[in-house]
Write a structure and sequence with these properties.
Elements (H helix, E strand, L loop, with lengths): L1 H7 L3 H12 L4 H8 L3 H10 L8 H12 L4 H8 L3 H7 L3 H6 L1 H30 L3 E5 L7 E6 L5 E5 H6 L5 H44 L1 E2 L6 E2 L7 H22 L8 H8 L15 E4 L2 E4 L4 E5 L14 E5 H7 L7
Antiparallel strand pairs: 1-2, 2-3, 4-5, 6-7, 8-9
Helix pairs in contact: 6-7
């Protein structure tokens, strides 16, 4: 319980400083001296946070790496804030490696010179093996290098990775682009040709439509004007033609059943005294208007009515005609006489 009390009486900042110094490689006693704290507190703090025993492996690696860079043992101990014996302990064997560094540089230089003499030959052999459609130019330093090659077809220099050449079937990007441009040009020419053909067909269809439209033009049988309608140029002419046909048919029936040729509206008006025999009303000669040169009669205008309709065998004779209003005649139509 006494040790626990001593451990708890230090604040968090002190514990953090202890851990920082321990991470730098200091011993327990060196930390106690630097922070003026108890040895049991330092030891327990480091053990609870995984920094107990010897220095952490990461710190040891840093010390060895720093010494391997050519620094002296004193410089290494001063840099990491540790004693010289501690630095010697972790850097054992590093000194002998530094003495052989010059020899290693010499060997590496000779190796590079030897490789430089034969790298072009190796590059040529490598390209011929993995990319026969290219020629080697320069840049081969190994199987993981990026070298410069020239396409045998288009003659353009390109940078390619050796790994790509070794594992993939590589083709020239410039040749691919040229082929794409050629295909695009062919497609564009084909599209233009199709558009021209469609345009010519459209012109032919329009010409055929105009020819058929011209064939549809004819003279109106009523007014004589040229029109492209079925028969008549307007509804007015169609109405006039229908009325004329109706009147012609009526006259034909009258001629077929004709007995008295001297029957007229004025003579019938005088005979019946101007009175409609259907409704008994007075007929009016002034019940009409003139519109567009045509006489349009009203409902009370007099008309000749056949008591027995011509369509049912009635004769056009004085004994079968009576005076009637136009409206009454229309309502009677071809029915039997009204009572």
């Amino acid at each position: 319980m006494k040790q626990h009390y001593k451990y708890e009486r230090y604040d968090a900042d002190t514990k953090k400083k202890v851990l920082d110094l321990r991470s730098q490689g200091l011993k327990y006693k060196e930390i106690c001296t630097a922070l003026l704290v108890g040895d049991d507190f330092v030891q327990r703090t480091c053990q609870d946070n995984g920094l107990g025993g010897t220095l952490a492996q990461a710190v040891q690696d840093q010390i060895r790496s720093y010494k391997a860079q050519g620094h002296t043992m004193a410089e290494t101990a001063e840099h990491f804030g540790i004693s010289r014996p501690t630095a010697q302990k972790y850097c054992k064997g590093i000194a002998s490696q530094c003495h052989t560094e010059k020899w290693r540089v010499t060997v590496a230089e000779k190796t590079r010179q030897h490789f430089a003499e034969s790298r072009d030959e190796r590059g040529i052999a490598f390209v011929e093996k993995y990319a026969p459609n290219f020629e080697y130019v320069s840049g081969y330093t190994g199987k993981d290098a990026t070298l410069t090659v020239k396409c045998r077809t288009c003659g353009v220099d390109q940078l390619l990775s050796c790994n790509v050449l070794r594992h993939c079937k590589v083709s020239c990007k410039v040749c691919k682009q040229i082929e794409r441009d050629r295909l695009n040009a062919e497609r564009e020419a084909d599209r233009k040709r199709k558009n021209e053909e469609a345009h010519m067909k459209r012109i032919e269809r329009e010409a055929e439509r105009e020819r058929k439209a011209a064939e549809r033009w004819h003279e109106c049988p009523v007014c004589g004007e040229r029109t492209n309608r079925k028969k008549y140029c307007s509804d007015k002419c169609a109405t006039q033609a229908a009325n004329a046909n109706h009147e012609a048919a009526r006259r034909l029936k009258i001629e077929q059943n004709l007995i008295d040729k001297n029957i007229t509206l004025s003579s019938l008006y005088k005979k019946d005294g101007g009175v409609c025999y259907i409704c008994g009303g007075k007929c009016r000669y002034d019940d009409y208007i003139i519109r567009d040169g045509l006489k349009i009669t009203g409902d009370w205008y007099p008309s000749i009515d056949h008591v027995v309709p011509l369509s049912k065998g009635g004769a056009h004779a004085w004994t079968n005609v009576r005076l009637a209003h136009r409206r009454c005649n229309y309502l009677k139509s071809d029915n039997a006489p009204l009572s």
